[in-house]
Design a protein that fits this description.
The chain has a two-stranded antiparallel ribbon with strand order 1-2. The protein is 66% helix and 2% strand. The chain has one domain. It is globular. Helix 3 packs antiparallel against helix 7, helix 5 packs antiparallel against helix 6 and helix 7 runs antiparallel to helix 8.
């Protein structure tokens, strides 16, 4: 199921949403963005994450083990404390990139975003298919150092986890995370010729963010944009994606030949 979902180019576009969701956790933000320098180069972080996940999904086991071994080694070196309070977390709160709770949120942001984009732009998945996808991702979580009991056991537990995170007090968008959102959505470092395509992708990213997080990031939205997003998604799901040739629909690593 992981390969079926992630072969779709439409799902590859979910990375920016996942990145913003990860940054909405102030402790994860400090450990995975500010500490590592990814705040200054968010697209480079997206590219590195995509490369590792692509290796896990479509590469050899040896390559996947090598890639995740390097990531785990890097995570072990990331340690620190919050310099200032952020939401419910006081200044001095320790962080570590291999903290299971932070790792789970990073992983869950990728999973939730991929499922949202697949459902909107490719096809609806049954609960059994969504569970099969999450079971594959539990293997991915294990490669990054998470234990079985540190992850939701099935897709229902995963959905409960996401609801609790989105309605609870852990997520709090700091001013630095808000600046990251502006870098990604408003000031992306791309050539002028590619800007129109990226504008569409960023429109989708903003529209598919959970509403509460979108407000915290200070990203504007309205009913007319919601209608435009829904109409475009239905057209893509019913017409564009089913009729697209493999070279346009699937990511290169998933194409035969």
């Amino acid at each position: 199921m992981l390969r079926r979902v992630h072969r779709e180019f439409a799902v590859a576009l979910s990375g920016s949403r996942a990145l913003l969701m990860q940054a909405a956790h102030p402790v994860a933000f400090e450990g995975f963005f500010a500490h590592s320098g990814a705040l200054d180069a968010p697209y480079e972080r997206l590219s590195r994450t995509a490369a590792v996940m692509n290796t896990i999904g479509f590469g050899s086991r040896a390559d996947a083990d090598g890639a995740t071994r390097r990531v785990r080694a890097m995570h072990r070196r990331v340690r620190g404390e919050l310099k200032r309070p952020a939401g419910r977390f006081p200044a001095g709160t320790p962080y570590a990139a291999d903290d299971p709770e932070l790792l789970l949120w990073v992983l869950a942001s990728l999973v939730d975003s991929a499922l949202v984009f697949y459902d909107r732009y490719v096809a609806s998945l049954s609960e059994a298919e969504r569970d099969a996808y999450w079971q594959d991702y539990r293997i991915v979580g294990g490669l990054f150092g998470l234990k079985d009991d540190e992850m939701p056991a099935d897709i229902r537990d995963f959905d409960d986890y996401m609801r609790e995170m989105l309605s609870g007090s852990d997520l709090f968008v700091t001013s630095a995370a808000r600046e990251l959102a502006l870098q990604i959505v408003m000031r992306p470092p791309v050539a002028l010729a590619r800007r129109p395509v990226l504008e569409v992708v960023n429109f989708i990213t903003v529209g598919l963010l959970p509403a509460g997080l979108r407000r915290q990031f200070g990203l504007s939205w309205d009913p007319l944009r919601s209608l435009m997003l829904r109409g475009g998604a239905e057209y893509a799901k019913r017409v564009l994606v089913p009729l697209a040739p493999e070279r346009l629909r699937f990511v290169s690593s998933a194409r035969v030949g």
